[in-house]
Predict the 3D structure of the following.
Amino acid sequence: MNIKEIFGFTNKNVFITGSASGMSKAATELLIELGANVYAADINEVGLPVVKSYHADLSKKEEIDKVLEDLPERIDAVFLCHGVSHMPGKEMFVSKVNFLSQKYIAEALLPRMPEWGSVTFISSIGSFGWESRLSQVDDLLNAKTWEEGIQWYENHMDLILTPETNEQLDYGLSKQALAAYVVKKAQDPMYIGKKIRINSINPGNTMTGLTETFYKVQTKSGDPEEGRKQIERVTLGDWNGRAARPEEMGWPMVVLGSDICSYVSGQNLYIDYGMSAKWKLAALEGNNDEGSAHFIKG
């Protein structure tokens, strides 16, 4: 049995974002190894032997559209991996990169995808508790255009920046919206009508190029060392574990979007060494878990 045939990417056209580094770079390398024709987009240079790479700011509709116009008429699989951490004062930018652009690209490419294709996102453990946000973001999930999505954000800045506490939820809300989108759209006619699978991976603590930035924004002081200790206490403290390597996220994402998981759709796969399981159990048992509260807030 040929392992490449099992994955089903040989000579297939695959579009992936964020390939310059981290989890997406690991995924892109594997896709190339599996024989895919890879088209990659990133704001940074993609130093991998892809068929074509695009330099694009994926927070801007006009730059996304230029990439989409140049892609092949047939796209068999899509992996949307670009993202940024929380950025004080740039809440709209974070929201566009982490959710709106992902939704826009996926839906724009659906007409080019054959039956049995797949769309796979990188979300975050920060999406935990998305169910509590579903009613709040429902209109955003159903926005028909980029402009309608922007209007939703402008009308709901109170969800992103809570006036009473000055608490910025741009990152957490974007990831929760993405998780909600995956579940809500799995059997939406736009996806299931063409048998297009839609899933996400939700990484836990992982060492990537964004790690230092994540550390800085965890605390009001902006001290990365303090932020590191806080994250490690929440995610690693109970089991004296370690942070994940990028490929421990990128490789499972490729599997999820491959023919190996041809009957899997509507799933948010938490890859966190059981952290989300602990939080879910705590919620079911009525325990107030500090870690889950921290990540639900984003």
Observations:
- The first strand starts at residue 13 and ends at 17.
- The two ends are 44 Å apart (CA to CA).
- DSSP finds 14 helices and nine strands in the chain.
- Residues 293-298 have pLDDT under 50 and may be disordered.
